[in-house]
Amino acid sequence: MIASFDSDRLAVSRRQSITSGGVGATCGLREAASAFLFDRQARGLSAGSLRFYEQKLALVVRYCQGEGVADILDLDAAAIRNLLVTLQADHTPGGVHAAYRALRAFLLWWQDEEAPTGWVNPLRRVRAPRVGIEPLEPIAPTDLQRLLKHCRRGTFHGDRDRAVLMTLLDTGCRASELLAINMEDLDLAQGQILIRRGKGHKPRMVFIEASCRKAIAAYLRHLATDDPSAPLWRTNAGERLTYEGLRDIVRRLARAAGIAAPTLHAFRRTFAITALRNGMDVFALQRLMGHADLTVLRRYLAQTDEDLKLAHRKHSPAESLGRASKGGRA
After folding, report:
1. What is the 8-class DSSP label of residue 233?
2. DSSP 188
3. Positive or negative torsion for Cα 128, 134, 138, 142
4. 329 lies in a domain?
5. Which of 87-96, 227-236, 256-265 has the lowest mean pLDDT?
6. How far apart are CA 294 and CA 257, in angstroms?
7. How remote is the C-alpha of 328 from its chain's centroid?
């Protein structure tokens, strides 16, 4: 088989391949999930997308194994609904919806690739779970200050960690995009970074201002090589920093600061909401964040009640009329 399970996720291996008739002959859910991941890998999906499918399908397969559903042909609408209800106990509505999306992609692939004649996709009878548009708050400024405070200046790890956090905050780039940056992609003098492979394999330019540039410059003084093809963000051994390594940096700093660890995605959300509140044009923000349209951006930028209250206070027609009346008095 091309992939195997551990306790948390599906692990994909490039060195193994699907044996002819293996999946179609057994219809095994576990084996089919591994074959689906191999297909996504062969299509050149980003590391972030592969990780998404690995993690969400692992949830599905573990649940089905616990319920005695080992074969795709035994996966019916009732089992899928039970899965979604079970996930609601320890997942946000967005997390439940993400599992649904991963399962939908998997079953559509199975339908095209391996399903026997007459098989009907059970997801046709299961509607997607609702996801409310809840206001999404950025990381609190005090928490950001605490994280940065615990980056020890003048040391490799301290200067690197500070530069990483500042770059996440100042660019709004995805964690996977940040980790893929090479030395040649950074133009410190011009204050810009080339994201060579954004979502959908689309390149774009992001920008950094004085505080972030200063933090990166302090980190660069620790690097032993300026090879253009070398990774910008490295471990002490000179290897490219991994997603897990980046996540560990944030968790370690959060523990030292005595705060709840923000997710890596929370830095991107903080960039978006802060930029909007500071008056950035939404279409400029869309381009900086690498979104194809405004659909996802609306989720990031759902305003809080306080934002709406302040906007109303500033632009209230009744108050404007009152101010105009007072100004016109003799």
Report:
1. S
2. T
3. negative
4. no
5. 87-96
6. 35
7. 54
- CA 99/CA 97 separation, integer angstroms: 5
22 and 170 share one domain:
no
Q: What is the pLDDT of residue 276?
A: 83
Query: Phi first, then psi: what are they for 240, rounded to 5°?
Result: -65, 135
CA distance 95 to 30: 21
Rounded to whole angstroms, the maximal C-alpha distance in the chain is 92
Which residues partner with 9 through β-bridges? none
Phi/psi of residue 38, each to 5°? -65, -40
Which ranges constitute the DSSP H helices of the chain?
Answer: 22-26, 29-42, 47-66, 77-87, 93-113, 141-149, 156-171, 175-179, 210-220, 243-257, 264-277, 282-289, 295-300, 305-315, 317-327
What confidence tens digit (pLDDT) does each residue in 42-57 have?
998 888 889 899 999 9
The residues, ordered by sequence, that sit 6+ positions from 136 with a Cβ below 8 Å of its Cβ are 269, 273, 299, 300, 302
> What is the model's pTM?
0.65
Chain centroid to Cα 312, Å, comes to 33
In terms of domains, do 110 and 183 share one?
A: no
What CATH number has the domain bearing residue 55?
Answer: 1.10.150.130
71 within some domain: yes
Higher pLDDT pick, 48 / 161? 161
**pLDDT, tens digit, for every residue of 283-317?**
888 889 888 777 767 766 665 556 667 777 777 78
Work out whether the CA dihedral 303, 306, 308, 310 comes out positive or negative: negative
73: in domain: yes
Rounded-to-integer distance, Cα 123 and Cα 120, Å? 9
Which DSSP string do the residues of 247-308 spell out, in sequence order?
HHHHHHHHHHHTSPPPPHHHHHHHHHHHHHHTT--HHHHHHHHT-SSSHHHHHHTPPPHHHH
Residue 310 per-residue DSSP state: H
Beta pairing class for 3-5 and 204-207: unpaired
Show Cβ contacts of residue 226 under 8 Å, excluding neighbours closer than 6 positions: 183
Same domain, 253 and 119: no
